[in-house]
Amino acid sequence: MYTMKELTARQIEMLDFISDYEWRQGFWPSIRNIQVQFNYKSTNAVMGHLRALERKGALERIPGQARTFKINRPDQPQAAFEEREIPDNASEVVEIPVYGAIAAGYPDRVESSGAISKLQVDIQNAGFSNRKQSFALEVRGDSMIDAEIYDGDRIIIEPREARDGDIVAALIDGEVTLKRLIQKAGEHPYLKAENKNYPELHPLNDLEVQGVAKAVVRAL
């Protein structure tokens, strides 16, 4: 285990920032977040410090999992950590691609032709079983507010078979929306909003579930 004396003052500040951010937000800061926090002119300086923290053992890669790390905290308590309780289990964080927006209102066309950004997520909180194929979408609209999903939230989608009552990203008659799936035995499945001002959506032709909502990431 490394000691705090082996880290530079800036490396300690960066480790504290990452740990505090992950604790408050539930996912790690992006390279850009760290760059802005420490007023670096480019991301190269951030990457240099992160590589140094990894070499010194403060950050450790999870074997066999790309871009996945845990934080190794010092044995001796430090002031930056004494103000809050820190769980003993190390945080496992993965990057999830963000594929544009999804309508949480009336169905709409898909806006993205590929990943537009990355989202770093604590997988223990998100509860993934298939995180390698999971992705995130930005919510647009207010049809799911009674399920506490709001305009501007990012919803993490896991591609798997949906069950009755799951909140899903679905393709209905060629357009995509985020709704609750209602799938009763012997009846045709349809989509239900979580806002009384929106109607149920019954497909004229096709209803295809693209994935099940697993977690919501909200900017504070």
Q: Your description of this structure?
A:
This protein is of the alpha+beta class and 220 residues long. It has two domains: 88 residues, Arc Repressor Mutant, subunit A (Orthogonal Bundle); 124 residues, Umud Fragment, subunit A (Ribbon). 20% of the residues lie in helices and 28% in strands. It is built from five helices and ten strands, in the order αααββαββαββββββ. It has an eight-stranded mixed sheet. It is elongated, with a radius of gyration of 20 Å. The relative contact order is 0.14. About 10% of the residues have low confidence.
Keywords for this structure?
eight-stranded mixed β-sheet; 2 domains; 5 helices; alpha+beta; 20% helix; Arc Repressor Mutant, subunit A; single chain; two-stranded antiparallel sheet; elongated; Umud Fragment, subunit A; 220 residues
- Report, as a whole number of angstroms, the end-to-end distance: 34 Å
| Lateral arrangement of strands in the main beta sheet | 4-3-5-6-10-7-8-9
Number of strand segments: 10
The assigned structural class equals: alpha+beta
Estimated share of beta-strand residues: 25-35%
User: Number of domains in the coordinates?
Assistant: 2
CATH topology of the largest domain: Umud Fragment, subunit A
Number of helices: 5
Spans of at least 5 consecutive residues whose pLDDT stays below 50 are 75-91, 109-113
CATH architecture of the largest domain: Ribbon
Identify the quaternary structure here: single chain
SSE topology string: HHHEEHEEHEEEEEE
User: Tell me, what's the shape?
Assistant: elongated
Radius of gyration: 20 Å
CATH superfamily of the largest domain: Umud Fragment, subunit A
CATH class of the largest domain: Mainly Beta
Report the mean per-residue pLDDT as an integer.
75
Strand count, sense and barrel status of the largest sheet are: 8 strands, mixed
Query: Percent range for helical residues?
Result: 10-25%
